[in-house]
Amino acid sequence: MTITSDNFAASLQKLGLGGDWEWKNGSWWRTLDASDVRATAASMVSLEARLVAITAMERPDKELRLDYQWDLKGQLLSFITATSMQQIASITDLCPAADWVERETHEYFAVEFTGRETTKPLMTRPGDPIGINLHKETVQ
Amino acid sequence: MSFRIPIGPYHPALEEPYKLELVCDGETVRDAVMHIGFNFRGIEYLAERRNYLQGITLVERVCGICSNVHSLSFCQAVEQLNGAVPPERALYIRVILAELERLHSHFLWAGVAAKLIGFKTIFMACFTLREKVMDALSAISGNRVNYGMNRIGGVNRDIADPQAVLNILDEMERDITRTIIPIFLEDRTVESRCKGVGILSKEQAVAMGAVGPLARASGVGQDIRRSAPYCAYDRFDFNVPVETSGDVRARLVVHALEMVESCRILRQALSTLPAGPFHTTPPVAARFKVPPGTAISRVEAPRGEVMYQITSNGTEIPERVRVRTPTFMNMATVRFTVLGQDLADSPLIQASCDPCYSCTDR
């Protein structure tokens, strides 16, 4: 199936990824409940979508907005979700490409990806502080 | 008997730091663990503490090889937010810069690969060709690296004499056709050294999110220039070379054929360069303050897709700058490609995914 901007909504509906998609500034966007992150990742993997990135952003309520970006047949899909108590379920067991991305996000924003066996440092070294990209002073 | 062999973080073959721990049974690699981050500079952190104009200069220093794609991607994202529309001539010049950069990056890679194969004559030939591209880039931008060409709303310099670049292109195309293509596609020594070595299956490439020539050598046919065209790529006729064997030879073939396609794109862009201005001039205030919102820009760098996500809160400083580079996704595949291979082949296998640690570590 070729997914284009014209048949996007109908195509995603057929693929079981319906919802209020909005095209804006280089990506298709929709919100996602944090509890659906793993189910959505499983769907994307089954459709041979490619994980592009997980982008974390600080929110005023101390939680982190997380955008999960996937490339599905050339279309960029961004699922906007958020952590709860700075935690969210890991998708690494479903999508190996998420391993380094989650480890990096953990180091930069102190997000805890639950369900991982370990979250070894990637850019930093064992014992270094985490949350190094947070706008407040570094948290331990 | 098993041996654990630490390699790095400083390498005689690839002059960039990373560490690889190989577990070997005799000469056969059984496991591999990678350590990166030796070049970590906190580029995202720094970009969120500088204004947008400073950000262009900063992100161009993410990488010393594909510097242009970073500033291009950054500017494209900002242009989506502030509505600046680059003139047609600027879009063509951006394509020309991007393809020259791809050529010099591919020549660099081909030279390093040839050296690791043991074909030093071709290493010299590749670097001679690369110098010609660098001369063209220097003539256009005034710099051999960090060209400073991209600005929000266009480019900083015009290409006043496209014919001069076309003349360099004539020479390059001839040498690529006479030297690089026959060696990489037909030479028996190259074939025996690379065929069946370091295989990455299509399934592994998709699962690991591999991009660029590495993915295309494993049968994943995506190229952002084709699947999500930007600049003026939708105006040009070009092929996206794809191989299915997933081995080092397939990566050589894809890189070599991509050189030919880059020359095709360059010839079309230089021959049909539209007249007119090469940048827009927004009001001074609009150059610094960007309306609130989030935008994403994707560009096909020499090593694959680069993604920038920029979030503005309406001030002069971006709220968030996310930089996802191709090698960040590609490098993790080495763990699969070295398994079961001869220890002696591991440098070539690592190099064959065209790693860039400056990009990876940022």
Overall description:
The complex is a heterodimer of chains A (140) and B (362). Chain A is α/β, with parallel strands linked by helices and 140 residues long. Chain A has a domain at 23-114: NADH:ubiquinone oxidoreductase Nqo5 subunit (Beta Polymerase, domain 2). Helix content of chain A is 21%, strand content 29%. A 5-stranded mixed beta sheet of chain A has the order 1-2-5-4-3. Chain A starts with 7 loop residues before the first helix and ends in a 26-residue tail after the last strand. Chain B has 362 residues and is α+β, with helices and mostly antiparallel strands. Chain B has a single domain (42-317), classed as Orthogonal Bundle (Cytochrome-c3 Hydrogenase, chain B). Chain B is built from 16 helices and 8 strands. Chain B has helices at 43-47, 52-59, 67-82, 88-117, 120-141, 162-186, 188-194, 202-207, 212-216, 224-227, 248-271, 284-288, 326-330, 334-337, 346-352, 357-361; strands at 2-7, 19-25, 28-35, 150-151, 154-155, 293-301, 304-312, 320-324. Chain B has a 3-stranded antiparallel beta sheet. In chain B, strands 6-7-8 form a 3-stranded antiparallel beta sheet. Chain B has a two-stranded antiparallel sheet with strand order 4-5. Classes of the chains: A alpha/beta (140), B alpha+beta (362). The A-B interface holds A 24-27, 45, 48, 50-53, 55, 57, 67, 69, 71, 73-76, 78, 95-97, 99-100, 108, 121-125, 132-133, 135 and B 36-37, 40, 42, 44-45, 48, 76-77, 80-81, 206-209, 211, 222, 227-228, 293-298, 305, 307, 309, 311, 319-320, 322, 324, 328-329, 332, 361.
